[in-house]
Protein: Glucose-6-phosphate 1-dehydrogenase
Organism: Halomonas daqiaonensis
Amino acid sequence: MTQRNRAGKAKPTDAGSTEIDLALFGALGDLAQRKLYPALYQLDREGLLDPATRLLGLARQDVDLDGFRMQVEKTLRNYVKGEELEDEALARFLARLDFIQLDFTQPEGYDAIREWRQQGLLRPMVVYLSVAAKIYGDICHHLEASGSLDEQSRVVVEKPIGYDLDSSAEINDAIGAVFPESRIYRIDHYLGKETVQNLIALRFANPLFGTQWNQNHISHVEITVAEKVGIEGRWNYFDEAGQLRDMVQNHLLQLVCLIAMDPPANLDADAIRDEKVKVLKALKPFTDDMLGRDVVRGQYMAGTTDGQAVPGYLEEEGANTESQTETFVAMKTGVANWRWAGVPFYLRTGKRMPEKLSQIIIHFRQQPHYIFDPDQRGLASNKLVIRLQPEEGIALEVLTKDSGLDKGMRLRRGPLYLDFSSAFPKTRIPDAYERLLLEVMKGQQYLFVRRDEVEHAWQWCDNLVAAWADRDEPPRRYPAGSWGPVASIAMITQDGRSWYEDY
Ligand code: BG6
């Protein structure tokens, strides 16, 4: 593909350099304020942004540069911890900002972006689209037509990419008409989380786990991504999506991929992503008879969170009281290949649960021959608990002898625990967006999702959504502040197992 290149030839940068121009579409939006400015500020504070890097905010709103900088400063004061807000770093960060008011869907105004780039000595440009996916194509087209791009420009897009396989293909085609795959960075912010990254280190740097990581040694895998919050003013978006599309299609399936994939040949982006795609292709599809047994959809009713009464999903502001959208999903699935044959993967995720908790539990098989107290047999297996949030850490549950003369050979379960914040007390655990932004700037793609990953994930979800539609059953209700519908507990109990409870 040849791009018109009226902006001129981009200055070549060293591999790994963060000397770029970042153009942020949706600069006054929610994501930019909650996540992107705080992350960029932290990178600047840590000395990870090149002194020459510039940030251009683009939004429809009519504000001038001073107004924009004031707004960003207010945001930072809101979202960055007081002790991390340093005057010098703040002033340096604000001085990097520029602003252009723009109607994103119209071609007029894009020339101003080209001119802004020319002032910046044509460093590579990163275009960050923090806007609705349906206008990704328009923006890419107008950027190209105005000559604002060159052969080094990259684009970052946020989920959700579409609503199903067809709509995601349409959006990906529109982006792909302007940017080649090697310069498209699809964000799944879970891939930027510290412990998610650690899954790769844990699995592939530790021979102890490497040799055990298969159906001979692992009985089942459990993933819980629970949120305490409800819909938070996003009712319209959420009601079209539901928890399956909002959380499972992306975040949970990415976690499944990192747990289930075979070792990549190296850490190159495509080596990792090739292995992840193989997992997505091997995910078991849901057949009709599995639906009633292995999948539970739920919707929260009024209840309590932290002792405060909270409304049900259908009573949230702007709600359609007939909605049957799920705010909770639990499912038993699996990966149909040699490594994972017969190993169930139990997934559950929901809004308005008792706490915010994301964790993965690898349950190892029991010893082939058991010699201890028969009453304690239920205790007798090792578990690896990988806590993504809060309190990031890894615990390996082992069995030891209970101490004391009167205990005989009674067993006791206890963790070998690596809590990241106490193990590395001087290291701040960065937010996922800090890492992701840094990798985009450096032009490293391994933490971003390739088109075929998105599409295989949609294919699997579409199959489930179609099966749900055929059954036309309302979601099961659960009170806000609970762990979901009772049926989700029955789903795992029918296999003689239970959802993991913290030690
Ligand atoms: C987003 C979803 O992708 O992830 C939100 O759209 C959800 O609905 C959020 O609340 C959860 O992210 P985290 O990092 O808070 O677990």
About this structure: Residues 21-158 form a domain with the Rossmann fold fold (CATH 3.40.50.720).
